Amino acid sequence: METLSVDHLLGIKDLTKADIDLIFATADEFKDVINRPIKKVPSLRDITIANLFFENSTRTKLSFELAEKRLSADVINFASGSSSVKKGETLVDTVNNILSMKVDMVVMRHPNPGAHQFLSRNIDAKIINAGDGAHEHPTQALLDAYSIRERLGEVSGKKVVIVGDILHSRVALSNIYALQKQGAEVMVCGPATLIPKFIHSLGVHVEHNLQKALDWCDVANMLRIQLERQDSKFFPSIREYTMQYGLTLDHLNKLEKEIVVMHPGPINRGVEITSEVADSHQSIILNQVENGVAVRMAVLYLLASKINR
Ligand code: CP
Questions:
Q1: Cα distance between the two ends of the chain
Q2: What are 220-276's pLDDT values in tens digits?
Q3: CATH number, position 147
Q4: Labelling 231: which of 36, 51, 102, 126 has CA 20 to 30 A away?
Q5: How far is the CA of 286 from the centre of ligand 1 (A)?
Q6: Inter-residue long-range contacts of 93-97, CB under 8 Å, 24+ positions, other chains counted
Q7: Pair (252, 146) in one structural domain
Q8: Global confidence as pTM
């Protein structure tokens, strides 16, 4: 059986193109499974997975839980708000307590970049990063690239612009790595204050004018403004941000081609994207969510095959 080059999914940076191809090929098979009347396979029977969410989530948490259940894994869920973390317990103590219940894999979202790296060195379970602060969100980037491949036939050679709050976005960084490894060209677009200074070292184009960025691209991935990670003002007001960077039908109608519109969610309708665009035939936002389950099934399955049983 073909396997991944990594033992944990900590970030896209660690993956090879062959890893991503293998995840996509496996996801293709699981996508067939979840579209059958009987959507469950026994692949992860007797594997126990803990979903540890130290930050809020709707899509990622539900998508992982569904993927695990479709694979017949035993699943336990942990949300930090209702846990003993509030009483001062450390991350390693929390996770070790959970692992002593014989858990094989941990899916974790944590506000601290590198928390997953730390855990992978200190505990004996497969770790999957479901988002670490403003660092990486690898399964989001995999499902985004998978959705582009599904809509456009391939990722290689495509031009993708990521628009918005690049500075605070783990989705942006993971997308840049995933798209470049698949042979796409990447541009970032947004106000200068929301584009990190190190961006040029990643080999991406930078554009501050949204209409010019749209003229250039095949795909526009619209990001939300991450107000929860902003401790100072990066633009005058939400209204001004929307006037310059909110995607409208008017922008799309000015183009001489039809582009694909994406958004990782949660959407702020009327801020970074209008409802007309989000709900238009050019939008693949709900396809992204659907593909998330198949892609996460693939990641879980491939990493579980590395567990010594
Ligand atoms: N895209 C994404 O990570 O959404 P959630 O925060 O709802 O999981």
A1: 16
A2: 999 998 766 665 577 778 899 999 999 999 999 999 999 999 999 999 999 999 999
A3: 3.40.50.1370
A4: 51
A5: 13
A6: 94/52, 95/52, 95/119, 95/123, 96/123
A7: yes
A8: 0.95
